[in-house]
């Protein structure tokens, strides 16, 4: 907690560490109330350091220092100084051994950073700067050391003791205690340290690597969750194999462990050899977890596993380089999911996510480049920009290089930088060196914030058969970056003939006749024209196939073009995008004029798509899903909260009414009685079926109510149950209330399922949702101490329920501010995340602006705030930044 204004850290101030640490020997005497940590560090002056003095300052927070010695001699108080954030050793030699002993208090650690207690177990979270809450250290990623860890604890309470690396010793001690010692042969930064102590059971398996080494795989969970690990284990083995095949990366230790923890600030953590997971991303059974959960588990397990190479073996020089590991690893997990599932659907859901979270971030007060220039609290920069846009930036490089050269470049990266802490620039240099391409201009994607707007004009000359596309790029100002230089943007373009076929793509000046399909063009200027030749009639342009760059496309498609692309484009992504644009248009017209009617041909196209037996069901479900209310708001100059909600409900209801028969047919055809399987086909079938049911429920269709109730009662799998529950709660007061009671009675003992029960209520469109949410805050099962529970109730209400959170009376805003103030002293990371729902207050009408502004100001005036919340709140209200962007 800070009384003074916390200061930003700047990228330009980076200095190499004055000392390096070669070895770390840790000994933990574990106890939830009081844990003792003894650390022995082998330090030496860094030959590459640019400055150095006699003193050495180590990071340390909330540590009670008991003892400190250099080369075996205890220091006297004159030889060191301790403050709230550090231990400074005066006049240290060039080489020395430092020993410290500190006391820490895991059971009091509600921030869940450092060593803390979750239920009956002890666990750690060190990224980004949690290790300094465990012991005094150079807690920065460019200090990589070899660790050994000895854990001592009561054997009955903590039979399992885990840390990074390989197990080397176990043994019994006096007073019912025991010990375990772990050695990690790979040098690592402190943020990758982990330990776990608990009463856990493991699901075990083995994996033989491409070179024939055997690796033991263990997933540790609390004993009652043993039957929910199959999917996680399958996912892990798939990910290990895929990384060998696709990137040539093999696992390197004898053992790989995953531990599921129920109190966790984020999704999971890639600690070397010992990944610690939020149990939401491990535990799944068909009756407890939805398709979305199964999918999340598969990709998060893969993501953390992939970090072993992109993050752990090669790490970040400093936290400004976070996207070096996160952007690349997200790209890798996206490609993995595309390969093991459906590539088209995966791309759609990734772009949906990017547009829903990253684009708004890029136009808000916390917009920052993929490689930020400054931060106050690094935990605030685990953002959609660093992760998702960072992945898009890697994807663009893969596109520019093509698959072979990209693989050559990643091979070079792994070889050149193994064991190092490097920068995003080092990554791009590998792309350049392996391909011979100059990516100097491309580097702007790391440096400039903001989403480029890409306006396109077309011209067709029937006489010459020339068809030209003129692209103009413009990136709006962002805080501290008023002017932007043009980006290097890969474009993937196709042209459709009158029968929907892909035309040959020959550019003016090409020697060869073009081939039909998709062509990658490179835009580097602020305006550039591409002229295609040999066209008999005006083609329908299919621009940005597969979404090759994170930009906003502005092209004045006619409705006819969109319907044509939706029906014919060979690119699945663009079929979806055309449908989305069309629906967005209809909805925004309805917002303007509630009496506007959707044209018949829209319903005809919808019906045709629904009844097409050849269609990919998962893709179809995506195509036929209306853009969300929040996304529609993003497309308006001033978000019309109530108008959007009205239009959204009206069109949904209209679809249900007009297409009743087709929807009922689709429901019937896809309502399978087969046992649950998690395959792309089965997932698609469930998605389509539940989409149809949703439209029918909106239309208040009697047959749908029956179907919904029996689907809920049958309880076949959680995907179907939760869909039915949501529809009942949203549309039927009596039946909804009964279903909620039944659901609670059935699932109150399963925390992850209970989270869904809270979420369904928090995201309900019913008018009394806020009252319910407030009432649920007092429910015996609610706790501010569990991040999953907070997210499932408070987070869901504030982030995923635009119409109720942004209710005109401002009570949603006050509710959020109260929660932020309540949570901040307990868990600043969670408090600061929640507050982000108000970051874009300037996008709303003046009344709502005033209300939100007042709540943010109230938060800022609190006597004590964490750096996390302070940074978000102060940037939210930063008028200078806003002026630079031309908004008021
Ligand atoms: N690297 C962690 C995130 C750490 C967040 C710290 N506030 C999980 C991941 O991205 O894989
Ligand atoms: Zn990651």
Features of this protein?
eight-stranded mixed beta sheet, 888 residues, 31 strands, Zincin-like fold, Immunoglobulin-like, binds (3S)-3,7-diaminoheptanoic acid, 28 helices, five-stranded mixed beta sheet, binds zinc ion
* CATH class membership of the domain at 19-306: Mainly Beta
Strands of the largest sheet, in order across it? 6-5-9-3-2-12-15-14
Low-confidence stretches: none
Helix fraction bin:
40-55%
Ligand inventory reads: (3S)-3,7-diaminoheptanoic acid, zinc ion
The largest pleated sheet is described as:
8 strands, mixed
Task: Report how far the terminal alpha carbons are from each other.
Answer: 31 Å
Structural class: alpha+beta
User: Which CATH architecture of the domain at 19-306 is right?
Assistant: Sandwich
**Rounded average pLDDT:** 97
Q: Which fold does the CATH topology of the domain at 19-306 refer to?
A: Immunoglobulin-like
Q: Would you count the extended β strands for me?
A: 31
The CATH homologous superfamily of the domain at 19-306 is termed tricorn interacting facor f3 domain
Number of helices: 28
Strand content: 15-25%
User: Rough shape?
Assistant: globular
Computed Rg:
28 Å
